[in-house]
Amino acid sequence: MWSLGRTAAYFLSCAQDEVWRRPDAPHKFDDVLCHLEMIAHNMSAPEPAQRVVSPSVHEFLVDFHNEFQQNSADNGFIARR
After folding, report:
1. Distance CA 43, CA 79 (A)
2. Residue 27 gets which letter from DSSP?
3. Distance between CA atoms of residues 75 and 45, nearest Å
4. d(Cα 20, Cα 54) in Å, to the nearest integer?
5. Cut 0.85: pTM above it
């Protein structure tokens, strides 16, 4: 499994991707922005031990990653990493 930081970086790289213009996009863009704000807030903590993301946000990222990978496989292309 990817680290949270790598997952967040991947997630950010996909935020502007064509996947968000597709009707089967995994999540609404407003939800994405909300989670990105939480990630940015948590990743800017001064101490590594404080750089935590709530389980719900982590679950959202993992679900997004899994759905994007599945959609990518279903559509015949490999998701960027």
Report:
1. 24
2. S
3. 38
4. 24
5. no
**Closest among 18, 67, 8 to 38, alpha carbons compared:** 8
Tell me how far apart the alpha carbons of residues 71 and 23 are, in angstroms, rounded to a whole number. 12
Per-residue tokens: 69: 């990978």
Which whole-number Å values give the CA distances from 42 to 14, 19, 20, 57, in the listed order? 19, 25, 24, 11
Domain ranges of the chain: 4-74
Q: How far is CA 44 from the centre of its chain?
A: 17
Choice between 81 and 4, residue whose per-residue pLDDT is larger: 4
Number of H helices, E strands in the chain: 3, 0
